[in-house]
């Protein structure tokens, strides 16, 4: 069968050591058939607009679990001025101990909120994600002691990939967002976008305190068989 509703995700499959699929077409009938045809253990996820209540119910009837709501916050840079406070880094690496500490710093990620994913699976996945992010020349980052923010530029938008501040470095998060804002404004970018989880109240407060506003939200659904 030629799958049209599910796309295998190479990175997640490797990080979780099990076939991992993303729903690319949520039409319930063909999706149900493709899920039924999968042999062996697998994981799958789907992302829908949070207001798509019927779509979300249809996926839950197929066995998906609603794991969290993911609000997207935006900082509009219209009128913002910036004297760029240094250039971000491209490819780099974190010391192993820092990598492990940052990997454990995301209990509110959608994998951290999923009761079917063990904490060690979540931190292994997160560690690989952070290591990939650091190694990638296409993901830019501002680094500080115990803290980093990574982001990509798409059109004239800076999209934050990850931001992590270890508890001992608290306060550096706002400093990093300030550096990113100054750099992005100096480059003439239009906005900065970031997605988090609604359970991550500290992060939601953090973005609002730094001038970001809620723009939209998605719902993350997971399946593990
Ligand atoms: C979210 C995070 C980046 C904030 O960085 P930080 O350096 O601690 O934030 P700041 O000290 O600059 O805080 C600014 C504001 O954020 C909010 N905030 C930060 N930490 C908070 C906490 N533990 N509880 C409640 N609000 C918090 C507050 O509104 C704070 O303002 P205040 O100090 O006047 O109360 C950091 O907590 C973190 O790394 N969390 C784990 C990783 C994560 O969830 N990243 C975001 C994923 S999208």
Kindly list the characteristics that best describe this protein.
225 residues, alpha+beta, Aminopeptidase, nine-stranded mixed sheet, 8 helices, globular, binds coenzyme A, dTDP-fucosamine acetyltransferase, Acyl_CoA_acyltransferase, GNAT_dom
What is this structure's SSE topology?
Layout: E1 6-8, H1 10-16, E2 19-23, H2 28-37, E3 42-49, H3 53-61, E4 65-76, H4 96-103, H5 110-113, H6 119-135, E5 140-144, E6 147-154, E7 157-165, H7 172-186, E8 191-195, H8 201-209, E9 213-224
Parallel strand pairs: 2-3, 7-8
Antiparallel strand pairs: 1-2, 3-9, 4-8, 4-9, 5-6, 6-7
Helix pairs in contact: 4-6
Bound molecules: coenzyme A.
Percent of residues in β-strands: 25-35%
CATH class of the largest domain: Alpha Beta
Mean pLDDT figure: 96
- Counting DSSP H or I runs of 4 or more residues, the number of helices is 8
> Under the CATH scheme, which architecture of the largest domain would be assigned?
3-Layer(aba) Sandwich
What's the total count of β strands?
9
Characterize the main sheet. Answer: 9 strands, mixed
